[in-house]
User: Which sequence fits this backbone?
């Protein structure tokens, strides 16, 4: 859903910028609820606030950002809800067929790719000019290992999350320490 939102809102309509979109994703993930709904709330409010109708001081003018939030949430939720409802009604009857089971197994890698591709694209476009410095390769490798541990070994995601937090803190600490040591070395070599 996020790649579709990004393509429509950032690339085609230019309602918000790339950095604003990345910040919106961070806020949408931090807030409770579905990311798509939280994103729709943020984008709807931003669009409503930027494109106020010319009726200043009236009730509609003050309510316009909130009306755009409602429209954005309905636009994000309603189509998915109707489609999933229709699929569920049909799928229940045909789920035991071997061909349907094979299709569902084949769709799983595509879903992983749909999630991974925009994640990597956003990581490359983030404000970090060197996304793989300071242990980025280690963290990327860990994400692959974590996925394999969950998928093949059946390790609980809770343990993976705890291990990821510890690993990220360690990599950040080591990176900061190395930067501090480099800064001290260069300031000691060039006295003023």
Assistant:
């Amino acid at each position: 859903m996020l790649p579709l939102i990004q393509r429509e809102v950032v690339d085609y309509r230019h309602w918000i910028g790339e950095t604003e979109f990345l910040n919106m994703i961070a806020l949408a993930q931090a807030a409770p609820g579905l990311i798509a709904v939280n994103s729709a709330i943020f984008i709807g409010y931003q669009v409503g606030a930027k494109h106020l109708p010319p009726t200043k001081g009236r009730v509609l003018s003050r309510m316009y950002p909130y009306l755009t939030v409602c429209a954005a949430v309905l636009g994000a939720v309603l189509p998915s809800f109707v489609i999933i409802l229709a699929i569920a009604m049909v799928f229940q009857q045909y789920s035991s067929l071997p061909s349907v089971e094979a299709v569902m197994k084949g769709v799983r890698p595509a879903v992983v790719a749909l999630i991974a591709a925009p994640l990597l694209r956003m990581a490359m476009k983030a404000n970090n000019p060197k996304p793989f410095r300071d242990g980025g390769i280690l963290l990327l490798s860990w994400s692959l290992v974590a996925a394999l541990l969950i998928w093949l070994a059946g390790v609980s995601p809770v343990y993976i999350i705890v291990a990821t937090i510890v690993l990220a803190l360690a990599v950040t600490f080591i990176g900061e320490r190395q930067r501090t040591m480099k800064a001290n070395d260069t300031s000691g070599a060039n006295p003023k």
